[in-house]
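Why do we care about 3D structure at all? Because function follows from shape, and shape follows, mostly, from sequence. That is the central idea of this module. The next example makes it concrete: a single protein chain, its amino acid sequence, and then its structure expressed as tokens.
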Amino acid sequence: MHKRIIANILIVTLVLGLLNHSGEIIYANETATPEEAIQETTEAESSEETTMLENNEETSEESTFMDMTISTDYVFPEDAEINNLIINGGTTNLNGHEVKVHGEVSINNGALYVNGGYLACDGNFTYNSIYALTMNTVNDTIAVNGDFVWNRGRSAINNGTIEVKGNYYDNAQAGYNFYAEGNHRFLFSGEKKQDIVQSRTSTFNTVWMMNYSEEGICSDKVLVAKEIVLNGSCFTYSMDGMPDNGICGWTLEEDEIHEGDLVLTAEELNLNGHTLTVEGSLIQMSGNININGGKLIVNGDYRLQSVQETELENAEGTDTDETDNETKTETVYGYSGGYLLMQNEKDEVWVQGDFVMGSYQNHDGKLTNGKLYVAGDFKQITYNSPQNFHATGNHETILNGEYQQVVSIAGSGTGNSCFSGLTFDNQSEEGIVLSGDVWVTGEVDNQESRVEG
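And the structure:
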């Protein structure tokens, strides 16, 4: 098939231009037809052997693949096999075809429309364009044996699969980061350690891991994803001071008691109609907690945040005195990549300490039913989405502490973070303090509590 593609290129060459002594094709008209979007076609520096089966006999032949550079709109008319693919402009449409790239894919200033096609890349895939990568059908596939590098780009990614066997790098600035939603899946399937490195926060839809090497997959930041599925893969964070007791989610088959703190790092914790009691604090770094008709009791704080222990410096700005027997540390919290799902009328969450909502995710439609009881402070922090505590429907929050409680919502508003139903049930002398604006879209019930603010 590669012979047919090469033959077509040579025909266009004879009609529209002439071949110079260096092997470059010079065209008289660069914008007349889709075929003329191929601005430069150079012979691959190295050839490779391929094995083909013909009439049940195995034969081999030496094949030469060509580079393909596209600068204007181009629609692939058929399957293609090439060396390097370079897109410098226009929209490249795979048009349902399979394009095999033996070298690298570089998208420098154009757009890629997968459109039911299959793009296989043996080398690295680099996206560096202000225009969109579009994946919107279930058959859309990009398979990369090397690294996936996202320097900048617009995302129109809501379906299909990107599979990567190398590392993942998102070097983009704000507004140009990788962003996927809908039914899209990002598959990490390497056979050795894979690093996920982000300058800011990438947003995945489903992260599917199938790396069974000893080191597995390591991320330098908390993964933000609708769903993280490990499939038995080793997954770790490289952030300093991370807790070493993180666990993945599971589905309860009976009531359970968890001794000490519980740190959730991936996958879904599904209560499945049962009661989970956490004797310490609950730290939801990533992954989802689905109450699903059950009851969650947290005897400490419940934080949808990441957590790190960092070494303190002394007043002079140098390291802590080496004569100290113990290293002095402080606890630093950051954003969570997970969701809290309360969508069943039987859902109950009881927090004896503070409740801190610091998720990176928009919770519109996630908090629609059930009751959230908080005995400590209630705090909402906006790291990304101002709707990370956007309660609607029949959801109700009950403040039932025995001491003063402070309610703080950074981005409160009917379209941002807000309560649906809110009940004050604090009988202490100090009562409840509302720090800043607090929006309630449903009913407010005050059980003779003192409320200030």
